[in-house]
Amino acid sequence: MISGGDLKTFNMVDILQVISAxxxxxxxxxxxxxxxxxxxxxxxxxxxxxxxxxNFLLYLDIDFDTxxxxxxxSREDLFKNLATYLPLILLLKEGxxxxxxxxxxxxxxxxxYIESVKLIIHLSRSLTEEEVNRKITDLSIVYEKVPDWExxxxxxxxxxxxxxxxxxxxxxxxxxDIVIKFHFxxxxxxxxxxxxxxxxxxxxxxxxxxxxxxxxxxxxxIAAGIVRKQKLLxxxxxxxxxVLSYLERKSIKETLREI
Length: 259
Fold this sequence. Notes:
Elements: E1 4-6, H1 12-21, E2 26-32, E3 35-42, E4 45-52, H2 64-71, H3 78-90, E5 96-101, H4 116-124, H5 129-133, E6 143-145, H6 160-168, H7 175-189, H8 200-224, E7 227-229, H9 239-249, H10 252-258
Antiparallel strand pairs: 1-5, 2-3, 2-5, 3-4, 6-7
Helix pairs in contact: 1-4, 4-8, 7-8
């Protein structure tokens, strides 16, 4: 678990993953050249954002309603606040961040206007190749959906391509299988007639493009907690295999002596 670091190392998807997975009540502090921001999270979802001159100002109050009174903000203004500041926050790529858990006391009836999972899926679509390769490097890995994946994300958060990719994550297909399937679909849908070797560079470009699209979607699914690496089931031990394995470890003379 991370509690702080550099935005160049941990992107916003990674930070949201940590906060949403544990349904944290916390303050995410972002110190950047553009200012210092405090993002208040209730049960893992952002509910309020403050722009302050110094980060210690975020910790003057321990009750969320008191924070709103200090800022002269009503609960009815929370959606407008998020709509104003979230686009700025989500674009931050440089600076320091820290996560302070359990500091603020929130009212249980606090409205949540946007879920972190939706932000994770959205932000994953614009991740760079360098960013996705930090988490997804081996295309031979097989992923599977977690048992309760449908309760973690609304299908309305996904675009059509992401839905198709999610359908192919079934505990059988490798990442490379998914990439190849969409690569060939892209070629078939193209109006251009490809041939080798004339169009080799273009085909390679299309493949790289498709690979990045699949990796971005997969990165978002992992961060949203709806897919995981396939868990290999341990085969039941066969009594014959046990006997043979035992005999292999013993010399014939020792085995006969024991018999």
